[in-house]
Specification:
The chain is of the alpha+beta class. Helices cover about 25% and strands about 30% of the residues. It has 19 helices and 36 strands. The strands form 10 sheets. Strands 4, 5, 6, 7, 33 and 34 form a 6-stranded antiparallel β-sheet that branches. A 4-stranded antiparallel β-sheet has the order 8-9-12-13, with no helix packed on it. Helix 2 packs across helix 3, helix 4 crosses helix 5 and helix 6 runs parallel beside helix 8.
């Protein structure tokens, strides 16, 4: 005899069948017992269905008052099309959301208290927050008391404050929201003058109505953070009325020492993806351990960034001109959550063991620097490992990749619209390269590999072959500064009896550098970077402090990794040592790391304590050893 308390699995087929029958009854107006009236439109429905999904209708139909006995209900200030979308959801469970419908849908769902629709709209809006709509999202989140939407939008307003404070939506902010923003410690401003200008623009937008808020708004400005010139001219732009009252109130309320805004603390850092480190890593794959770290040349400190979700590795990395950090594509072990979830565009990796252990992904993430967290954005249309990511004319481009299937797939190019949070396909590369370097210069994209150079024209969506280089190299690093593109290092490609080109290292020789002049469409040889004969150098070209620099890793005879930053002197055509990097600061990153440059907030990151590489430990267990020519003690870990 079966146990009456035994829980049986839900019969999903039956549940789907019930929904289909309800939809059939609704479409054919069978057994309907309530009609919703909106403007000149009638929606015959079933009370039971409406009450199931809407707290508003549940309270109306179950109140016992005269409303519960009505056969017709008038709904005011509701859009008929939006109501139809909600009714369709009630009968099918399917919700159609897009950029044009999400806001009225959210407003109507809030009015009708349709919780599931509210949650889906909220998640959609949070995911779509960007510099162009964050102020409006802040107002919407405040209007509908949606804490998550309001907080996410406020973080974006803080992050993009130098851009958004001139927007019409910012000038229309309520007084309360404006004070909340201006008082924030997290504003990404390098000078307090930016906050002062934002306050004045808001006041002047409607001075007659807002003069009553003069003191409360201006009191949010940290006067001691302003330059002396600005302080002397501080009240010249203020309206004449009550100037003395404002002066006294402001200076009395302001502390002598101000707390700097978050943007005043940011430092330009080198960001290393997939750095090998045995003690700081969160990801262990195939016996190797990886971390995402950044190095501040100014402070000579190393900080740890949150590792990408789902054990992602071999991602493409990009820092945009407005300092947003993105990663795209990559591969994950099949046991990881990202791989288990799968992707409609996913492909298997390379042949052999790689194919059995990994899966390429179409993932795309933005780095929230305040939260030290990766935020998922709309995935790419193709799965790619190590795609080249380039920012050009307001769009992000994902180019190729070394493990996305056949030749046609490796040629694919996608363009990401940050405002719409969507990817579209662009014209494919003329050639398929497993490894290539891509940079943006003068509103164009240049892709280089072997001895070939191709240029992409975004407005024409077309590629053109440019001047060839004198050397044939792949796996090189590239960086653009002004009208020049620097192509540095890599492996020289030699032909072997007519077969496919084979890579050949030039271990022990100087690092080759070639420079492309964008205006002249010419390549020229530049001064090589000196390297010791035993060093097997690994180089990454970056633009650091608005200078062309090289981050170099050299392996010495004792297998120690030495690091240094070199800077290019264009007038003398030579490389100068900018800054050596002590082993006390930076451990062995391995040979497969990628490098980018961005401005990050040290206070939002975890400082990484230095931990000695294993080769420094003495076999007798002593806690003292020699490093950088000094005897040091083993630090407490």
């Amino acid at each position: 005899m079966s146990d009456l308390g035994e829980r049986r699995p839900v019969n999903t087929d039956y549940a789907v069948s019930v929904l289909e029958q309800l939809k059939f009854f609704y479409e054919h107006k069978l057994l309907t017992d309530i009609t919703l009236l909106v403007e000149d439109n009638e929606f015959p429905c079933h009370k039971m269905v409406l009450a199931t999904c809407s707290s508003y209708f549940r309270a109306m139909f179950m109140s016992g008052l005269s409303e519960s006995k009505q056969t017709h209900v008038h709904l005011r200030n509701v859009d008929p099309g939006t109501l139809q979308t909600i009714i369709t959801y009630a009968y099918t469970g399917n919700l159609a959301i897009n950029d044009s419908t999400v806001e009225p849908l959210y407003e109507t769902a809030c009015f009708l208290q349709v919780e599931d629709v509210l949650l889906q709209c909220r998640d959609y809006l949070v995911k779509k927050i960007n510099a162009d709509n964050c102020v409006r999202m802040l107002s919407i989140g405040d209007l509908f008391s949606c804490t998550e939407l309001k907080q996410s939008a406020k973080r974006m307003v803080e992050h993009k404050f130098p851009v958004v404070y001139r927007q019409e939506a910012f000038l229309q902010l309520s007084h309360e929201l404006l004070l909340d923003v201006l008082s924030s410690d997290n504003l990404n401003v390098e000078k307090e003058e930016t906050v002062r200008e934002a306050a004045m623009l808001w006041l002047e937008y409607n001075m007659e109505a807002r003069s009553q808020h003069l003191s409360s708004v201006l009191s949010q400005i940290r006067i001691d953070a302003l330059s002396e010139v600005t302080q002397r001219a501080w009240f010249q732009g203020l309206p004449p009325n009550d100037k003395s009252v404002v002066v006294q109130g402001l200076y009395k309320s302001m502390p002598k020492f101000f707390k700097p805004r978050l943007g005043m603390t940011k430092e330009e850092m080198l960001i290393f993806m997939e750095a090998e480190h045995p003690s700081l890593s969160e990801v262990t794959v195939g016996g190797s351990q990886y971390a995402v770290v950044c190095y501040s040349p100014q402070a000579e400190k190393v900080y740890k960034l949150r590792s990408p979700p789902g054990d992602l590795q071999k991602v493409g990395t990009l820092v945009t001109s407005d300092n947003d950090v993105y990663i795209a594509g990559g591969q994950v072990p099949l046991k990881s959550p990202l791989a288990a979830a799968g992707s409609s565009h996913a492909h298997h990796g390379k042949a052999g063991k790689m194919q059995a252990a990994y899966r390429a992904t179409d993932s795309f993430f933005w780095f929230d620097a305040q939260q030290n967290a990766w935020v998922a954005k709309t995935p790419m249309q193709c799965a790619r490992t190590r795609p080249a990511l380039v920012y050009c004319e307001g769009h992000i481009y994902a180019i190729g990749g070394d493990s996305v299937g056949g030749e046609l797939n490796r040629r694919t190019v996608e363009r990401y619209d940050r405002e719409r949070d969507e990817w579209t396909m662009a014209s494919p590369l003329p050639c398929a390269w497993s490894w290539s370097a891509a940079v943006a210069a003068r509103e164009r994209i240049y892709v280089m590999s072997h001895d070939l150079t191709y240029c992409y024209f975004p407005r024409a969506d077309a590629w053109a072959e440019m001047a060839s280089r004198r050397t044939s190299r792949c796996f090189a690093s590239a960086a653009a500064l002004g009208d020049q593109i620097f192509y540095v290092g890599g492996l020289h490609v030699v032909s072997n009896s007519g077969t496919r080109p084979q890579p050949s290292t030039l271990e022990g020789s100087a690092v080759t550098v070639e420079v492309y002049d964008v205006g002249k469409n010419e390549w020229r040889a530049a001064a090589s970077i000196p390297a010791r004969r035993y060093s097997a150098p690994c180089v990454r070209a970056v633009v650091l402090f608005n200078q062309l620099c090289i981050f170099m890793r050299e392996t010495h005879l004792d297998d120690r990794a030495k690091y240094a930053l070199y800077q290019y002197d264009g007038e003398r055509d030579c490389w100068c040592l900018r800054q050596p990097v002590s082993e006390r600061v930076l451990w062995d990153l391995g040979k497969d790391f990628r490098c980018a440059v961005g401005k990050l907030y040290p206070s939002c990151l975890e400082e990484s304590p230095w931990k000695p590489p294993t080769y420094l430990f003495s076999p007798d267990g002593t806690e003292e050893f020699e490093i950088d020519g000094e005897i040091v003690s083993l630090p407490q870990v």
